[in-house]
């Protein structure tokens, strides 16, 4: 793994707006966020807080409305093209008509390699599913496949958007064992989750956002201490506003509805 910058992710004044017929939604609202190499960061926030949008900006899948984001010291698209970043996204990214094993081999081919699928399937706990057609796999099995595919490029930075959604108890345990193993080898991991227990058990650091803004950032212990009870759930509920039922309620940026 090569690292070309002192930061894995460096976002400064990051803003992303979506313009629609009913006004402008400010999904990310001036986010300053620095992630250092080797950190395992839990990215928390209510539905619609801006987690996936931020991940998209870090992956270069969307362009910021304002501000900048650098990944391993590079433009996001460059870091991806160099195979230094991989992601497990909430949806998509799979071809239903090929097998699990072929999916991993195809991903390897995209990186100009001819890696056998076996070791990656093993790490994702789906070695026995190599010959199954993707479309016949269960939701949790497909999520494990996304994880196996994300490991293929041996990325420096792994972005996981609700990676364990739909996984069973053992699946989650296996998944996090694999992630911790990779993190100990120096890989940087940023994961969005609604399972606060995953943040408490596996993250070095918790970043909590609400309505596109950072509302808490620190070690699990530091963030827990923000609530009198010392529970991460209480901090979450205290610091995150009610989700906007109507996203256009957030259209007026300054002062807005917070
Ligand atoms: N392409 C888009 N066009 C318009 N609005 C969008 C678009 N993508 C996201 N949004 C809005 O931006 C806000 C942030 O969405 P985002 O998907 O980043 O939230 P999230 O934190 O990932 O939520 P969840 O926990 O539900 O996955 C939401 O209000 C959403 O409706
Ligand atoms: Mg999301």
From TrEMBL:
Protein name: ABC transporter ATP-binding protein
Keyword Transport among record annotations: yes
Domain of life of the native organism: Bacteria
Any one GO molecular-function label of the UniProt entry: ATP binding
InterPro entries linked: AAA+_ATPase, ABC_transporter-like_ATP-bd, ABC_transporter-like_CS, ABC_transporter_ATP-binding, P-loop_NTPase
Record bears the keyword DNA repair: no
Location, primary (coarse class): membrane
Pfam families referenced in this protein's UniProt entry, alphabetically: ABC_tran
Membrane topology label: Peripheral membrane protein
Domain (ABC transporter): residue spans on this chain: 9-236
PANTHER family given in the database record: ABC TRANSPORTER ATP-BINDING PROTEIN (PTHR42711)
SUPFAM superfamilies: P-loop containing nucleoside triphosphate hydrolases
Subcellular location: Cell membrane
């Amino acid at each position: 793994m090569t690292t070309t910058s002192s930061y894995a992710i460096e976002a400064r004044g990051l803003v992303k707006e979506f313009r629609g017929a009913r006004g402008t939604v400010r999904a990310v609202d001036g986010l300053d966020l620095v992630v250092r190499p080797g950190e395992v960061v839990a990215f928390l926030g209510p539905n619609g807080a801006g987690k996936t949008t931020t991940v998209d900006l870090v992956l270069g899948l969307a362009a910021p409305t304002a501000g900048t984001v650098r990944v391993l010291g590079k433009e996001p698209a460059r870091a991806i093209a160099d195979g230094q970043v991989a992601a497990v996204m909430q949806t998509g990214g799979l071809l239903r008509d090929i097998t699990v094993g072929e999916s991993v081999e195809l991903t390897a081919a995209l990186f100009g390699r001819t890696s056998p699928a076996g070791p990656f399937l093993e790490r994702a706990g789906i070695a026995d599913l190599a010959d199954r057609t993707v479309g016949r796999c269960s939701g949790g099995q497909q999520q494990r496949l996304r994880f196996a595919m994300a490991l293929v490029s041996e990325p420096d930075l792994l972005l996981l958007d609700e990676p364990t959604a739909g996984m069973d108890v053992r699946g989650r345990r296996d998944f996090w064992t694999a992630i911790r193993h990779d993190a100990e080898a120096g890989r940087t991991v940023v994961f969005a989750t609604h399972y606060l227990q995953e943040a408490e058990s596996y993250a070095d650091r918790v970043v909590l956002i609400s309505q596109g803004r950072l509302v808490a950032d620190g070690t699990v212990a530091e963030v827990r201490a923000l609530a009198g009870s010392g529970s991460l759930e209480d901090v979450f509920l205290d610091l995150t506003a009610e989700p906007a039922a109507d996203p256009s309620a957030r259209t007026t940026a300054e002062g807005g509805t917070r």
